[in-house]
């Protein structure tokens, strides 16, 4: 680490940090701040501002609320995250991945009322913030790992398609009654065939999209900023707003005010589901991005603190007229490439946006809506993951088809049902893996140390009268009966009469009440047939569980061996079997 580099992100969690200070990483950074970092943070903050403004406006519009609320969601949340967020590099704000779930709730619940849409967005920000904070305090930061990579890809590909389709009408200068991706495509096609498209608007938007994509490989050249500036100048110079090109218009002057977003006559189920979905998506994105930059900086990530920081930032968004936010995979690299050292970069960016709203709110009045649509479409294109899905298809096709099912679910039914489908598929996938795990009967293969699967080593020698059985999964209610069936099957298929079964239990990481009762039942069945049940390499926490379930006394005190080899030796000695390993 160079002398001018900041300490690792894990500094707030050093052993010297105690009590409430642990939850305020920003204060730790302030105490350790070096003046040598200040020029880098200021410069990076100003560069970042050039991205915060157009992207914040564009994602707010994509979420179904006026663009100004995307800027409101940029100011106070960045300040809050600078204090409570553990990462020194992440930039938070409105995000393309959240646009679809926010819009889905607004379309169903707001009834076309802009004021109601704004309040609903604030309510969802508060709900998602509370969910993240509670999950962080309960140390549930691991929950995002429950969504496997293929499931995540499927969901995000579906979100990307939904967001892209939702912006096409704006690109063509057409207004439609959005009801979901499929209906939007049909309405858009009908409107274009009816001659309702504004081709000036399309030319501006398509030009912006092409420019953004062409400049994307050039990390130090802000393609979004260049495209937005050129589009704004073109509309202003050629008076394109006079020929039907819709523009942003004047922004309200001033800063966001504190307000409690509340509607009494609202479908709370929709709001709560939307808030939960947003919390899951935003924290998943934030967790992945945080781990990515932690690997680059060789620092540690505390997912629970990350949840709390993200949750507080979302609360700030909700209570200061903003919309739900997440980390940004487009703005964070800009800050990093510009030389950001700490979260002061985000603070500078927030203050610069605030200064814009106070001093020059009309600067963007000629910004065309089709250019904002191009910004969102470019972001949606970046969300698609195709390359790795090809690899997954080659490696394991059934996981690819799970991903595709999730993608279709989001594309057909929308973001909120889509994420419910993603979670359901993930749970089913987890249960399926545990329900039908790999198992093996073991023998001694010539020239190979240890005991191995006789299916993979057909020449492996089996110990007469002994079944060595390995179960490669935790034991729980879903697979307990299958475990018993496979043990009894191995006994029936043994080439010699069985006197003892030894379960190689090293892969068994846990047991529950159902599986413990099954072991007691299995022991009874084997005892009736004169067969002993022993265990090898069982972990101490699993033994503790068996004691807790009062099973050790029933099974017997001398049934545990430290290794499979020791279990074989004990069997040979106990039964006087002459067999050479």
Automatic annotation (TrEMBL):
<dbReference type="InterPro" id="IPR011547">
    <property type="entry name" value="SLC26A/SulP_dom"/>
</dbReference>
<keyword id="KW-0472">Membrane</keyword>
<dbReference type="GO" id="GO:0055085">
    <property type="term" value="P:transmembrane transport"/>
</dbReference>
<feature type="transmembrane region" description="Helical">
    <location>
        <begin position="344"/>
        <end position="364"/>
    </location>
</feature>
<feature type="domain" description="STAS">
    <location>
        <begin position="456"/>
        <end position="571"/>
    </location>
</feature>
<dbReference type="InterPro" id="IPR001902">
    <property type="entry name" value="SLC26A/SulP_fam"/>
</dbReference>
<keyword id="KW-1133">Transmembrane helix</keyword>
<dbReference type="GO" id="GO:0016020">
    <property type="term" value="C:membrane"/>
</dbReference>
<keyword id="KW-0812">Transmembrane</keyword>
<feature type="transmembrane region" description="Helical">
    <location>
        <begin position="401"/>
        <end position="432"/>
    </location>
</feature>
<feature type="transmembrane region" description="Helical">
    <location>
        <begin position="118"/>
        <end position="142"/>
    </location>
</feature>
<feature type="transmembrane region" description="Helical">
    <location>
        <begin position="268"/>
        <end position="290"/>
    </location>
</feature>
<protein>
    <submittedName>
        <fullName>High affinity sulphate transporter 1</fullName>
    </submittedName>
</protein>
<dbReference type="Pfam" id="PF01740">
    <property type="entry name" value="STAS"/>
</dbReference>
<feature type="transmembrane region" description="Helical">
    <location>
        <begin position="96"/>
        <end position="112"/>
    </location>
</feature>
<feature type="transmembrane region" description="Helical">
    <location>
        <begin position="42"/>
        <end position="60"/>
    </location>
</feature>
<feature type="transmembrane region" description="Helical">
    <location>
        <begin position="221"/>
        <end position="238"/>
    </location>
</feature>
<feature type="transmembrane region" description="Helical">
    <location>
        <begin position="66"/>
        <end position="84"/>
    </location>
</feature>
<dbReference type="Pfam" id="PF00916">
    <property type="entry name" value="Sulfate_transp"/>
</dbReference>
<dbReference type="InterPro" id="IPR002645">
    <property type="entry name" value="STAS_dom"/>
</dbReference>
<feature type="transmembrane region" description="Helical">
    <location>
        <begin position="197"/>
        <end position="214"/>
    </location>
</feature>
<feature type="transmembrane region" description="Helical">
    <location>
        <begin position="370"/>
        <end position="389"/>
    </location>
</feature>
<dbReference type="InterPro" id="IPR036513">
    <property type="entry name" value="STAS_dom_sf"/>
</dbReference>
<feature type="transmembrane region" description="Helical">
    <location>
        <begin position="154"/>
        <end position="177"/>
    </location>
</feature>
């Amino acid at each position: 680490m160079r002398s001018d580099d900041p300490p690792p992100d894990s500094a707030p969690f050093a052993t010297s940090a105690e009590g409430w200070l642990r939850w305020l990483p920003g204060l730790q950074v302030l105490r350790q701040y070096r003046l040598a970092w200040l020029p880098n943070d200021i410069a990076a903050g100003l560069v970042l501002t050039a991205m915060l403004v157009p992207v914040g406006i564009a994602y707010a519009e994509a979420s179904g609320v006026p663009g100004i609320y995307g800027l409101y969601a940029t100011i106070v949340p960045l300040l809050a995250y600078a204090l409570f967020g553990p990462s020194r590099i992440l930039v938070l704000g409105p995000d393309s991945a959240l646009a679809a779930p926010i819009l889905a709730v607004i379309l169903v619940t707001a009834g076309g009322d802009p004021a109601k849409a704004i309040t609903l967005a604030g309510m969802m920000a508060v709900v998602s913030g509370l969910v993240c904070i509670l999950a962080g305090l309960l140390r549930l930061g691991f929950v995002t790992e429950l969504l496997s990579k293929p499931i995540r890809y499927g969901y995000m590909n579906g979100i990307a398609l939904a967001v892209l389709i939702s912006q096409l009408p704006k690109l063509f200068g057409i207004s439609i009654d959005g009801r979901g991706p499929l209906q939007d495509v049909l309405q858009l096609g009908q409107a274009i065939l009816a001659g309702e498209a504004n081709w000036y608007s399309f030319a501006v938007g398509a030009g912006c999209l092409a420019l953004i994509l062409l400049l994307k490989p050039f990390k130090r050249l802000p393609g979004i900023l260049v495209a937005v500036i050129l589009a704004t100048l073109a509309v202003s110079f050629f008076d394109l707003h006079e020929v039907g090109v819709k523009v942003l218009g004047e922004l309200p002057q001033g800063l966001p005010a504190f307000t409690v977003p509340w509607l009494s006559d609202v479908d709370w189920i929709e709001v709560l589901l939307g808030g939960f979905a947003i919390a899951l998506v935003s924290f998943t994105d934030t967790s992945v991005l945080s781990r990515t930059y932690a690997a680059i900086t060789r620092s540690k990530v505390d997912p629970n603190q990350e949840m709390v920081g993200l949750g507080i930032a979302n609360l700030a968004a909700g209570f200061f007229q903003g919309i739900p936010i997440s980390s940004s995979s487009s703005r964070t690299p800009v800050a990093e490439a510009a030389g950001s050292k700490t979260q002061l970069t985000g603070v500078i960016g927030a203050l610069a946006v605030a200064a814009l709203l106070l001093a020059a709110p009309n600067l963007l009045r000629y910004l065309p809506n089709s250019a904002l649509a191009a910004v969102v479409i470019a972001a949606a294109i970046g969300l698609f993951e195709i390359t790795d899905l090809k690899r997954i298809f080659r490696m394991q096709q059934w996981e690819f088809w799970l991903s595709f099912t999730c993608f279709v679910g989001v594309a057909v039914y929308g973001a909120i049902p889509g994420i419910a489908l993603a979670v359901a598929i993930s749970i089913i996938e987890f249960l399926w893996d545990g329900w039908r795990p790999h198992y093996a009967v073991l023998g001694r293969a010539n020239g190979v140390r240890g005991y191995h699967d006789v299916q993979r080593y057909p020449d492996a020698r089996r110990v007469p009268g002994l079944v060595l059985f390995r179960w490669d999964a935790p034991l729980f209610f879903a697979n307990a009966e299958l475990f018993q069936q496979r043990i009894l099957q191995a006994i029936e298929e043994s080439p010699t009469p069985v006197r003892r079964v030894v379960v190689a239990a090293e892969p068994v990481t846990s047991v529950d009440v159902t599986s413990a009762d099954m072991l007691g039942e299995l022991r009874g069945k084997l005892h009736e047939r004169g067969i002993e049940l022993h265990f090898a390499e069982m972990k101490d926490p699993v033994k503790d569980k068996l004691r807790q379930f009062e099973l050790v006394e029933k099974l017997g005190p001398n049934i545990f061996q430290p290794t499979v080899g020791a279990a074989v030796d004990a069997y040979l000695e106990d039964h006087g079997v002459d067999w050479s390993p």
